[in-house]
Amino acid sequence: MRVEGVDPLILNQVQSQTQKPTVQDAKKINVDSEQEKRRQEGQAGYSQGDLDQSVARLNAATELFNIKLRFKLDHEKGEIYVLVIDAKEGKIIRRIPPENVLKVASQMQQLVGLLLDELI
Questions:
Q1: Residue 84 maps to which CATH number?
Q2: Which of 1, 2, 119, 22 is nearest to 61 (CA)?
Q3: Coiled-coil regions in this chain (predicted)?
């Protein structure tokens, strides 16, 4: 038995079934880069100064209401969190993402403003 060549139709079928579609790879790369941009934009919604000011406002409000909590910025592994610390024992109660801290500080400031127009 002698095989002279391969039928071009069969060869084309085999090639089309074994080729990896490069378009899917390009789409995946594009989606990954868009997700990275969104993540960075989410982090860029605040500055270090905004966080420092929010933490200071939260600490002032907890002192005003005699709440035994303290707030502290924590930079761990390139991520920023705000630690909620029990003032008596010095234990970390919770880690809060910066976006939530900005919201809480704003709401706390509004609450203080409703109760007191001016600090004495």
A1: 3.30.160.170
A2: 119
A3: none
Determine the structural domain holding residue 87 and report its residue range: 48-115
Residue 120 placed within a domain: no
- d(C-alpha 85, C-alpha 94), whole Å: 7
In the chain, alpha helices (H): 8-18, 22-43, 48-64, 98-115
**What is the per-residue pLDDT across 9-22, written as a single tens digit (0 to 9) for each?**
776 776 776 665 55
Q: pTM above 0.90?
A: no
Residue 75 lies in a domain: yes
Tell me how far apart the alpha carbons of residues 93 and 91 are, in angstroms, rounded to a whole number. Answer: 6
Q: Give how many domains the chain has, as a whole number.
A: 1
Compute the distance between CA of residue 116 and CA of residue 61 in angstroms, rounded to an integer: 11
Q: In one letter, which amino acid is 3?
A: V
Q: Which two tokens stand for residue 78?
A: 């390139």
Residue 103 Cα distances to 23, 46, 96, 99, 108, angstroms: 42, 11, 11, 7, 9
